[in-house]
Amino acid sequence: MSDTDTLADKLAIRELVDQWIIASDSGLWDLFAEVWHDDGVMAATWFQASGADFLAARRKGFENGVSIIHANLGHISTIRGARAIAQTKMTISQRAEVHGVMVDVTATGRFYDFLEKRAGNWGFVRRQPIYEKDRMDPVEPGASVTLDAALLARFPVGYRHLGYLQTQAGFKVKEKGMPGLTGPEVERLYAQGDAWLSGAEPAGLVE
């Protein structure tokens, strides 16, 4: 593969990553459907299933007023033949009411993506967030909210406040197994990424 081909693939992967958030956050569902391969899977704190099912759940939430906004930051990709692993720094911002107070939770982390080029087009085979840290802030200046310490402690430090908010909003949140900045979960994910680039089948969703 020439340097030109590699650059073209890297640009296509970055555009795919950006298309995911713009389509998802803006309700552009036809564009959102384009980023997934048919066997693609998505993991999140509140949802682990196929890309198609995630689209349906995301659309339902969007149409019901669920406010979840993403932003992409720094990005790298490693390409080996028709396969790639991409890592993209990101933020997730969700607004909802917690104990009668409107708050924003901002989570910082990375999207860790398993991608494959099929019939000339890159697509997601597996999308796994890595949750590094988060915080909760009341929207109204001067407001405060008192959290249940036991409920907060049920979630890993990387998405503790996000999990709390989503639980209050009625989501069933995964309490363990999701990768964070350090630890066995993220080391396992890195090993799965290396195996994917070497030709193994994707490991699937976090159990």
Put the structure in a nutshell.
By secondary structure, the chain is α+β, with helices and mostly antiparallel strands.
How would you describe the overall organization of this protein?
This protein is α+β, with helices and mostly antiparallel strands and 207 residues long. It has a single domain, classed as Nuclear Transport Factor 2, Chain: A, CATH 3.10.450.50. 34% of the residues lie in helices and 38% in strands. The chain contains 6 helices and 6 strands. Strands 2-1-6-5-4-3 form a 6-stranded mixed beta sheet. A hairpin with a 2-residue loop joins β5 and β6.
Give the low-pLDDT segments: none
What can be said about the biggest beta sheet? Answer: 6 strands, mixed
Second-tier CATH architecture = Roll
Q: Output the strand order for the largest sheet.
A: 2-1-6-5-4-3
The counted number of beta strands is 6
Question: Proportion of β residues?
Answer: 35-45%
Mean pLDDT across the residues is: 93
Helix percentage range: 25-40%
Euclidean distance between termini CA atoms: 37 Å
Structural class: alpha+beta
- Distinct helical segment count: 6
Rg result: 17 Å
Overall outline? globular
The CATH topology is what? Answer: Nuclear Transport Factor 2, Chain: A
Number of domains: 1
Order of helices and strands: HHEEHEEEEHHH
Regarding CATH, which class?
Alpha Beta
